[in-house]
Amino acid sequence: MTGAPLLVLSGSPHARGVGHGRALAERLRGFLDDSLARLGHLTDRPADLDALRPDIAAHRAVVAEALPDLAAEIDGLAVGAGIDRDAAWLLQLRRELIGYSRVTAGDCTTYASAGAEPVLAQTVDLNGDLDDQIAVLSVSGPRHRSLVLSFAGLLGYLGVNDAGIAVGINLVLGGDWRPGVPPYLAIRHVLDTADTVEQAVEILRDLPLASSRAFTICGVDRTVCVEATVARRRVIEGDELVHTNHFLDSELTEQDELNVFAKNSSKRRLKTVLDAGIPKAGDTGGHHRLLATPPILVRDNGDIRHERTVAAVVLRPDLGEMRLWPGDPSTVQDQVHVLR
Known about the structure:
- The chain has 11 helices and 14 strands.
- It is an alpha+beta fold.
- It folds into 2 domains: 6-98, no CATH class; 110-338, 4-Layer Sandwich (Penicillin V Acylase, Chain A), CATH 3.60.60.10.
């Protein structure tokens, strides 16, 4: 991995999607041709778009009602890339269509600190060898501009906006998943519209989410984590927060369905950050050492089904800055993007 392209997206929702699709058309078509966005490599079921169309349609109906602008942007992505409309929606729903995978080698370690110089940083641990699908989106949304990390046509994953809000994400497993808004689109909506941490929390409380996640939100004066199942939301607050892949709220731990071995890994990564302490916002070397060293760094074991660290980021909500290591952060150079 030598770098991630920066895509500047503006205009109407449809126009933003068309621009995204055109810029990555060859890459996205190749990805879809690789066993249907590599889903066939990750499950024991045949990868068949026609078989998935009913599930895709059920998710799309909820998204179109809750987030019509983003639904239009996804449709525009299909037009720009020259791909089937359902294939563009599949790119937003890969995790939800795969479903639970209780045995994980990683799945992101996130930490954040409020104060005069707030910072949010995390590894991105995914299966599917997705480091070749990274892009950074510079989005002019309906209310805010944002820098958004994207994988394989996703409209959102994590990012920072010009209101001083940064959002990170961790997989947690609990509750019944259902057709709804995928968490990555929820983050994009937060970055598009939220002026404050409080507004971000309310957005996540109200959206009909499709699946469980933990959302860490860092602003210039407050840091919170919203642990979410489809049916429940719990908010954890503190000057410094660390999250991995098990529920921290006592009311949600009883619903935690993470395999015991994966949970031990999650707890080990959490303890590693707590023991090390969160580096100061401007200590790039300190962040890099923490993010690029096992167990926070999850190395590639050669199995496409196993999660590994495919990126690391440091977000500065006060500066509107994203520092990104696209790929294994122990072996690649960082790139810096700033909202202007």
